[in-house]
Write a structure and sequence with these properties.
Number of strands: 12
Low-confidence stretches: none
Order of helices and strands: EEEEEEEEEEEE
Number of helices: 0
Radius of gyration: 17 Å
Strand content: 35-45%
Structural class: mainly beta
Distance between the termini: 30 Å
Helix content: under 10%
Mean pLDDT: 87
Length: 127
């Protein structure tokens, strides 16, 4: 198995709670800087409502073919929320530099009347 060098830093929340957590911020993957993309949208209209969602993709290496993982919790509408998660499509170059990714899927099943919502969109440019 190939070892991939990863660089980054941990953030400690410095609280007194014994269940505290750390956040890992990756800055390079296999010697390449990493980047993320913002994403947001509105789900399909189902059972009389829709949901909004927004987030930032997982980091991925810059300058090579790649996709990003993503995860978000939708807005709380009609007494419930849903989760969206998946992998973006490959990078789509932009005319003035940078790139975006397409994403699409279905939310988790939830609601008083159990249902899912479809969603799709394009990420923002890399950051």
């Amino acid at each position: 198995m190939k070892k991939i060098p990863v660089k980054g830093y941990l953030m400690d929340h410095h609280d007194d709670d014994s269940t505290h957590a750390h956040k890992l911020f990756i800055t390079s993957w296999d010697g390449r800087p990493v980047h993320t993309h913002p994403f947001k949208g509105v789900t399909s209209f189902e059972v009389g409502h829709h949901h909004h969602y927004a987030g930032v993709t997982e980091p991925a290496p810059s300058g090579v073919p790649h996709v990003h993982g993503y995860f978000a919790v939708t807005s709380f509408n009609d007494g419930h929320k849903h989760v969206i998660r998946g992998r973006t499509g490959p990078a789509i170059p932009l005319p003035n530099g940078g790139h975006v990714h397409r994403f699409e899927g279905y939310t988790t099943l939830d609601g008083r009347i159990p249902h899912v919502h479809a969603y799709e969109g394009t990420t923002g440019n890399e950051s």
